Amino acid sequence: MSSPAAVPSVLFVCVHNAGRSQMAAAFLSRLGGDGVQVRSAGSAPADAVNPAVVEAMRETGIDLSAETPKILTSDAVQASDVVVTMGCGDACPYFPGKRYLDWTLDDPAGQGVQAVRPIRDEIERRVRVLLAELGVEVR
User: Catalytic site residue 14?
Assistant: First the structure.
């Protein structure tokens, strides 16, 4: 059983775990520090993070080049307080008592870095709002 002082945990989910969910997890990690636990996964993970996403995030000082897409598991959902979906549809398992958010965002797949930048910036904005809602101080 978790206490009110427990660190909140957030899971970001998209189909390939190669773009949106990777960016969101990286921003939450950087901005929330040890005030939040971060996970990301995909229902059908790609082999690697989208190179345009890696480049767009490098511009913010975040290096995603060593990250690898991970498969979505029921355990990851159960271990999370908040589940943020970004286009995984019916593939996301539902567990009562979890907070689910659905962020409708353009898919960076097949896009160049120019098209990824506004998606990246919107994800950072939403991550900052989420941190405020969770009561986690931005670092």
Answer: yes
Is 92 a known active-site residue? Answer: yes
Locate 123 and state its tokens: 């994800």
The 10s digit of each residue's pLDDT in 73-115 is 999 999 999 999 997 665 677 788 899 999 999 999 999 999 9
Other CB atoms within 10 Å distance of the CB of residue 109: 16
* Given the residues 88, 105, 119, 134, the one annotated as active site: 88
Q: Which of 11, 14, 53, 131 is catalytic?
A: 14
Answer whether 87's CB lies under 8 Å from 101's CB.
Answer: no
Burial class (CB in 10 A: 0-12, 13-18, 19+), 34: exposed
What does the block give as tokens for 35? Answer: 């005030």
55 is catalytic: no
pLDDT in tens, 20-36: 999 999 999 999 999 99
Say what the pTM is: 0.93
